[in-house]
Specification:
The complex is a heterodimer of chains A (about 150) and B (about 450). Chain A is an alpha+beta fold and about 150 residues long. Chain A has three helices and five strands, in the order H-E-E-H-E-E-E-H. Chain A has one domain: Beta-Lactamase, CATH 3.30.450. In chain A, strands 2-1-5-4-3 form a five-stranded antiparallel β-sheet, with helices on both faces. Chain B folds into two domains: about 290 residues, no CATH class; about 160 residues, no CATH class. In chain B, a hairpin with a 2-residue loop joins strand 10 and strand 11. In chain B, helix 1 runs parallel beside helix 2, helix 3 runs parallel beside helix 6 and helix 10 runs parallel beside helix 12. Chain B starts with a strand and ends with a strand. The chains are: A alpha+beta (about 150), B alpha+beta (about 450). At the A-B interface, helix 3 of A face helix 3 and strand 13 of B.
């Protein structure tokens, strides 16, 4: 009986570690100046982790709302084998915000909303790297070192 | 993390390697963890390269090394067609791998490389570092027969009498057969234009989101072989690759072509053989109708000059293929004096697509590249990549573009110096370049790769 509970405790510990490492990974992406918001969705559309500035402008909030509407459509495309999808969300006549959808593992979608003048070359590398790391964590259900 | 560069232009490759190595060592101070080694083209084959690699081996016997031979090399101090260029790294974990005779049994070797690459990447990801691969696949291989060694003095003798026969062209069954034969020979002896062997690998890596750049080695003296270097030894027509991984660095890359599409000159293929041969274009022999397209059919003397200058081939303006995504994919078209067919430098996978679904999806046009557009492109692509945190740069430039720039090449290199400042960099002039950010472009392009120090704010 004691050994069983210990096993359950160990599993719970591993899972909590995994969950916290998911938070750390998503937060790492959010520390970049160009990133306005990072949200990790489950394939069914529920949010696992989200980071956005508390003083975010209405524009970013409206983009997040739009992302929630569109997530079911992108899910189908990502399931079919696309690794990432990029949208340019027009917010006013002169400005468009780049929004990236990355497949993370078998059961997640990472959404990143960037600044309109962001260095997309560097950010694409960083986002795909984070998506891959998150994918490893989600698929194995345990945290990874480093 | 630190990188340093050494370069020496000399006909004696051993001397050049020694000088370049000394230069690089002086700037690095510490023991290197990896070496990139590039050379110009030197006659004498494998032995010459091996002798010069021995000099590096004596100093650093256990340091992984990779590289290839190209048409030319340059950095902030010098540029030339013969010599050696070395880049030393410290503080980056480096791994190298070799696949011998990559053109034969490509499928198995491709799968092997894919497995190695994904393994390296996931291992490095778990240690929180980011990885980039640099590939050196075998480049252009034209058959020896096609280079007429008698300098066209024997006009009656045509080594391609079989392919120039009408039967091959007009009967679809026979043309398919001959195409397969050419393709088989291409893989076996390095005959034909064989980017096709490396194509599935790059496509697969692109789909998996693995970051890479690459350059195809080429030997402009013979045009039928290329040399790759792996851990202090030279190999002919093999595939070597190097992985650079570091937690602090991010490897950014970009491809640019600097070409303007001439929409008034659309282009259609009527028949196509594997290996890059195009027998018929708009109802005529490929070579004939290409000459008409370029408006060169009435000035044979230009053609003659071209033949003398560029290894008995006529490198022409690029052909642009606009695919479904409307991105520009540039490939070269050329004519051989012995052959009635035109030659395309696109891999079989692309050229077949062009031939089959041409009218429905994909359009192709003749393109223009000039010295001015290329210089503008250089400004654009470098300034967007290079910043205060740039640690080193590697630039793979197409040999054909160097020909277009011509006498202004020195001026063109000075632009590199102005933009990059004191950042160590190398320019390798090669025969084909690839990049994971814009996958299908292979020819007439500049692939610029830059290592950026990470500073999240």
């Amino acid at each position: 009986m004691i050994s069983q509970t210990r096993e359950i405790d160990d599993q719970a510990l591993i899972l909590t570690k995994a969950i916290s490492s998911i938070q750390i990974e998503a937060n790492h992406l959010f520390t970049f100046r160009d990133v306005k918001a990072t949200i990790l969705f489950r394939l069914d559309g529920r949010v696992i982790a989200s980071f956005y500035e508390t003083e975010t402008s209405n524009i970013i909030l409206s983009v997040i709302k739009w992302v929630k509407e569109i997530i079911s459509k992108t899910k189908e495309e990502l399931k079919r084998g696309a690794r990432s999808i990029k949208y340019n969300k027009q917010i006013n006549q002169n400005e468009a915000i780049p929004v990236y959808f990355y497949r993370t593992g078998n059961s997640g979608i990472l959404v990143t909303i960037l600044d309109s003048r962001a260095n997309t070359g560097l950010m694409e590398i960083e986002m795909s790297r984070t998506a891959k790391r998150l994918g490893i964590i989600i698929d194995r259900k345990r945290s990874i070192g480093g | 993390m630190k990188a340093s560069v050494g370069l020496s232009i000399n006909h004696n490759l051993q001397l050049a390697t020694e000088i370049a190595l000394n230069q690089a060592e002086k700037k690095l101070y510490t023991e290197p963890t990896g070496i990139l080694y590039f050379t110009g083209t030197h006659p004498g084959g494998k032995r010459v390269y091996n002798r010069s690699l021995k000099i590096i081996k004596e100093k650093y016997p256990n340091t992984p090394l990779a590289g290839c031979s190209g048409i030319g090399i340059a950095n902030n101090q010098d540029h030339g067609l013969k010599g050696a260029a070395i880049m030393l790294f410290s503080g980056i974990s480096v791994k190298t791998k070799l696949m011998k005779r990559f053109r034969i049994r490509t499928k198995g070797k491709t799968n092997k490389i894919l497995k190695i690459c994904t393994d390296i990447e996931t291992r490095e990801l778990q240690q929180n570092s980011s990885t980039s691969f640099i590939f050196f696949p075998p480049g252009l291989g034209f058959p020896k027969l096609m280079v007429n060694l008698l300098n066209h003095r024997l006009k009656g003798f045509n080594p391609f009498f079989v392919l120039n026969n009408r039967i091959w062209r007009d009967l679809p069954i026979l043309s398919r057969l001959s195409g397969k034969l050419v393709n088989f020979l291409m893989n076996l002896c390095g005959i034909g234009i064989s980017y096709s062997s490396a194509w599935p690998l790059f496509q697969e890596l692109y789909e998996r989101g693995i970051h890479y750049t690459g350059t195809f080695g080429v030997d402009p003296i013979s045009m039928n072989k290329s040399y790759q270097f792996h851990n202090h030894k030279a190999y002919k027509d093999s595939m070597t690759f190097i992985s650079l991984s570091s937690p602090e660095l991010r490897f950014m890359s970009k491809t640019d072509t600097g070409a303007t599409v001439d929409f008034q000159k659309p282009f259609t293929l009527e028949s196509y053989l594997d290996g890059g041969f195009i027998p018929r274009i708009s109802g005529q022999w490929g070579a004939e109708s290409l000459l008409k397209l370029y408006e060169m059919d009435k000035t044979p003397e230009i053609l003659e000059e071209c033949t003398q200058k560029y290894f008995y081939y006529h490198p022409f303006k690029p052909l642009c293929i606009l695919d479904d995504k409307k991105s520009q994919n540039l490939y070269g078209l050329s004519i051989n004096p012995n052959l009635n067919h035109a030659l395309i430098t696109a891999p079989n996978q692309v050229a077949k697509k062009l031939y089959v679904n041409h009218k429905e999806h994909i359009q192709s046009y003749i393109c223009n590249q000039s010295a001015i557009t290329i210089e503008n492109l250089l400004d654009d692509s470098l300034t967007s990549l290079v910043g205060n945190n740039t640690k080193f740069g590697l630039f793979f430039d197409c040999g054909n573009r160097a020909m277009i720039v011509g006498d202004r090449f020195q001026q063109y290199l000075q632009r590199y110096n102005q933009i990059l400042g004191e950042v160590p960099f190398l320019v390798i002039i090669s025969g084909g370049e690839v990049n994971s950010q814009s996958f299908p472009i292979v020819n007439f392009s500049l692939v610029s790769g830059v290592a950026q120090q990470l500073t999240p704010v």
